[in-house]
UniProtKB/TrEMBL annotation, chain A:
Pfam families: BPD_transp_1. Residues 51-231 form the ABC transmembrane type-1 domain. The chain crosses the membrane at residues 59-78, 211-231. Its main location: membrane. CDD domains: TM_PBP2 (cd06261). The keyword Glycoprotein does not apply. It is a multi-pass membrane protein. It is found in: Cell membrane. Keywords: Cell membrane, Membrane, Transmembrane, Transmembrane helix, Transport. SUPFAM superfamilies: MetI-like. This is ABC transporter permease. Coiled coil: none annotated. The keyword Zinc does not apply.
Automatic annotation (TrEMBL), chain B:
This is ABC transporter ATP-binding protein. The keyword Acetylation does not apply. It comes from Pseudonocardia xishanensis. Residues 16-248 form the ABC transporter domain. Keywords: ATP-binding, Nucleotide-binding, Transport. PROSITE patterns: ABC_TRANSPORTER_1, ABC_TRANSPORTER_2.
Length: 250, 279
């Protein structure tokens, strides 16, 4: 990776710091990067104690979305009923603003991890269904016919052809999904939580402690980047057969 | 796996009797093939040539039971195809290699064995390596399709077709998508392989030279709906190699076939439209 994005980020931070100092912006409005760094350090125990909650909810929600997504994508891709009856309903659910359902999830699932995980999964499953279904169908009919002449069963065609062909689609969907499930976990924590970075953000805002809020925000972004990195690494292993250029463009 | 039974070349292996094939579309039916009688002797090479859309490829699908004839019968070794179990006895090769891009050359060649033999694939690995070596890819076992040229990919497809030791090899314009130099080396490879294996081959091609070079018999089909115009015996001596192209008899046979495909009369315009060579 080139050094340019790091240089640009460093430059922006310097400008931010300088502007806040020069214009004497009050701390509760926009904290200077130095103030955020200060609160990252002084509140490190508090911040770190709340990070695992969010990390857990994000990944649990993501895995739930993956299971639901795979479970829906297979019938949608391979059966007429799935394509004609199930898919339109899935698409229709996308017009519901799911973050608005967060209070309902609290009513249904209580104040524990469950409503956050459900929210994360609710946001993340859609790209998985759509992309995986597309990938499972993205095989040349000639290859299917060829395998059939060899005596392949539907199961053979699925396991040896459709599933590996769909993997690149699944991985690009997973990268979108992990970001969405992070958002879901935070939104879930906004509504009713006693721990987690979303809870930290909400509490800091109520106390006008903007520096802590930004520090927590920074940690959320860091979690997002790390989770994304994990999936990218998995993808590299699973799709090592792909030509370099194709793997990079996904 | 059973070795292919040694059958005398005078015994018919595939017999098509009055085969008619109708495609039923939503609005209308179209007749692809009309009353085709054809006999493929065991261990011989028969080519089918004809204008595009004459139903050449459909004939292969009928033989392999992908399509069922609307009328008439297909028999393999005297057993009606409907009843015969052709799994593992018959291989296909197409114009496109149809390789799985995530598999190496070796793993692509193992695919038919995985489907027919399930668990006992390990035993066949050495055989798959042998077959790849025979087609000249012993050095490229671990390459993925995107790391190979078009000709190499087609060699992998040929190895994949041969790895099951098929009694019957059905080839649908197998060298139609590669450049001329590659095509000639693939043709020579097929001659060599047939020389040792003596598989029964049905080859669909639009190339008259290819048909004459490789075949014992060429079936010329008319424009669609296809019927057999004529069957030409290729009496060039075997074993053959590329040198056969210089044989005066080779030229004679190719011109005979060309005249059948481009009749100057009575319908010169219709016949000249497309001999299948245009792409």
């Amino acid at each position: 990776m080139s050094a340019r994005p790091w240089l640009l980020a460093a430059g922006l931070i310097v400008v931010w710091e300088a502007l806040v100092q020069l214009l004497d912006v009050p701390l509760y409005l926009i904290p200077a990067p130095s103030a955020i760094a200060g609160s990252l350090w002084s509140d490190r125990a508090y911040l770190l104690a709340n990070t695992p909650t969010t990390l857990f909810e994000t990944w649990a929600g993501f895995l739930l979305a993956l299971a639901i997504g795979i479970g829906l994508a297979i019938p949608v891709a391979l059966t007429r009923f799935g394509e004609e009856a199930v898919m339109p309903i899935i698409v229709a659910t996308q017009s519901v603003p799911k973050t608005a359902l967060a209070p309902v999830f609290v009513v249904w699932f209580g104040f524990g991890f469950a409503p956050k995980i459900v929210m994360a999964a609710a946001l993340a499953f859609f790209p998985i269904v759509v992309n995986l279904a597309r990938g499972l169908r993205a095989v040349e009919p000639e290859i299917v016919q060829y395998m059939t002449t060899l005596g392949a069963t539907r199961r053979d065609v699925f396991l040896r052809l459709r599933l590996p062909a769909a993997l690149p689609y699944l991985f690009s969907a997973m990268k979108v999904a992990i970001s969405l499930s992070t958002v879901g976990a935070i939104v879930g924590e906004f509504i009713g939580a006693s721990s987690g970075l979303g809870y930290v953000i909400l509490r800091a805002i109520n106390n006008y402690d903007t520096a802590v809020m930004f520090a927590a925000l920074l940690l959320v972004s860091l979690l997002g980047v790390l989770s994304y990195g994990v999936i990218t690494q998995l993808e590299k292993r699973a799709l090592s057969w792909q030509p370099e250029s194709a793997a990079a463009s996904v | 796996m059973a070795e292919p039974t040694a059958v005398d070349a005078s015994v018919p292996r595939i017999t098509l009797d009055g085969v008619k094939l109708v495609y039923r579309g939503k609005a209308r039916e179209s007749v692809a093939v009309e009353r085709v009688d054809m006999t493929v002797m065991a261990n011989s090479v028969v080519s089918v040539v004809g204008p595009s859309g004459c139903g050449k490829s459909s004939l292969l699908k009928v033989i392999s039971k992908v399509l069922r004839p609307s009328e008439g019968t297909v028999a393999v070794d005297g057993v009606e195809a409907e009843a015969a179990d052709l799994t593992g006895r018959l291989s296909f090769m197409f114009q496109q290699p149809l390789l799985l891009p995530w598999r190496t050359a070796l793993d692509n060649v193992l695919l038919p064995l995985q489907i027919t033999h399930r668990r006992r694939v390990g035993e066949h690995r050495a055989h798959a390596v042998d077959v790849l070596t025979r087609v000249g890819l012993g050095h490229a076992l671990d390459r993925h399709p995107h790391e190979m040229s078009g000709g190499m990919r087609q060699r992998v497809a040929l190895a994949r077709a041969l790895v099951t030791r098929p009694e019957i090899l059905l080839m649908d314009e197998p060298f139609g998508a590669v450049d001329e130099i590659t095509r000639e080396s693939l043709q020579e490879l097929l001659l060599q392989i047939w020389g040792t294996d003596r598989t029964t081959i049905v080859l669909v091609t639009h190339q008259v030279e290819e048909a004459v070079l490789l075949s014992d018999r060429v079936v010329v089909m008319s424009e669609g709906p296809g019927t057999v115009l004529r069957t030409v015996e290729i009496d060039l001596p075997r074993p053959r190699d590329a040198e056969v192209r210089r044989d005066p008899r080779f030229l004679e046979l190719t011109s005979t076939l060309r005249d059948l495909l481009h009749p100057r009369s009575p319908q010169p315009r219709r016949a000249a439209i497309d001999v299948g060579g245009v792409r």
